[in-house]
Amino acid sequence: MVIDELEQLKKEYAAELPQKLTHIHQAVDQVIQSLTHRRKVSWEALEGATHKLAGSSGTYGFKALSVIARYLEDLITENLIQSLGPQQAIAHLSRWYDTLSHEAHLAQAGSKSSKSSNSENKLASLKEHWASLETETTRRAA
Amino acid sequence: MKILLAEDDPSVQAIALLALTRVGKHEVRAVANGQEALEAVATETFDLILLDVMMPIMDGFEACRQLKSNTATKDMPVIFLTAKAQVYEVQHGISVGAVGYILKPFDPMTLHKQIEEVLKSHAQAA
Question: Which of A59, A60, A72 should one mutate to test binding to chain B, selecting the residue with the greatest count of B CBs within 10 A?
Fold first, then answer.
């Protein structure tokens, strides 16, 4: 049955999530290190990793993971996170990664479609955090 | 249909293969980048080429451009299978000769239907 084969693939994908998360963690860490030491930041690896996760996780039915990954990809693609100061960018990246990591663990734990994980609230919380950082950045610039 | 699928992410390639062969009943050859897609069309003919956009070695846009500039392959329809939803990228894809776009995430149970719809609307527009 095709459905059984799909379920099997989904289980295999869920089992690979820790590896994918490690890859993203490395990319986040690289960016944070560059921001911390005021070096030129290369966002490409993180943008690529979030792009891949957004596409693959959603196709496997992990919608919340996809939405959270796409959120950061868009911030990078549209040069928004780059416009923050280093400390704000680090704070937001850290918060984003915690949210993603939590979601990935939930997904892996039950290979559930992560509907139960209240993803809309988590994304809303990320967006709220983002708005407060943007406001602060604008205020400082003024 | 005989389909060439170019997708570098093994997990997406696996589910797309399942969707196209087991659900859609198509014959599929899968490759991992645009360069391999060009190599595949040099020896085989396909009814459809599905290209991811962001791939190493050669991306989907460049592969499509080369496919369309070659008289032997220019008539093979190309559809981009990509997570990139921005309008300017869709327009770029069409400008290099694609007949349409299917956005990731896709539903593996209905991917074959989406392909049919893209091809149908392109045929109607032509």
Answer: A59
SS (H, E, C) chain B: CEEEEECCCHHHHHHHHHHHHHHCCCEEEEECCHHHHHHHHHHCCCCEEEECCCCCCCCHHHHHHHHHHCCCCCCCCEEEEECCCCHHHHHHHHHCCCCEEEECCCCCCCHHHHHHHHHHHHHHHC
Residues of B in contact with A57 (CB under 8 A): 105
- Taking the CA of residue A22 and the nearest CA in chain B, the distance in Å comes to 16
CA-based max dimension of chain B = 35
Q: Copy the structure tokens of residue B95.
A: 């400008």
pTM for the whole thing?
Answer: 0.87
Among B18, B104, B109, select the one facing A58 at the smallest CB separation. Answer: B104
User: How does residue B87 score in pLDDT terms, banded at 50, 70 and 90?
Assistant: low
Tokens of A33: 């290190």
Q: Round to whole Å and give the CA distance between B34 and A94.
A: 35
Q: Give the separation between CA A116 and CA A129, rounded to whole angstroms.
A: 22
Dist CA A138 CA A142 (whole Å): 6
**Contact in structure between B96 and B61 (CB atoms under 8 Å):** yes
Q: How confident is the model at residue B3 (pLDDT cuts 50, 70, 90)?
A: very high
- The C-alpha of A79 sits at a distance from chain B's nearest C-alpha, in angstroms, of 14
Cβ–Cβ of A70/B83 closer than 8 Å? yes
Give chain A's largest Cα–Cα span: 62
Low-confidence spans in chain A with pLDDT less than 50? 112-114, 116
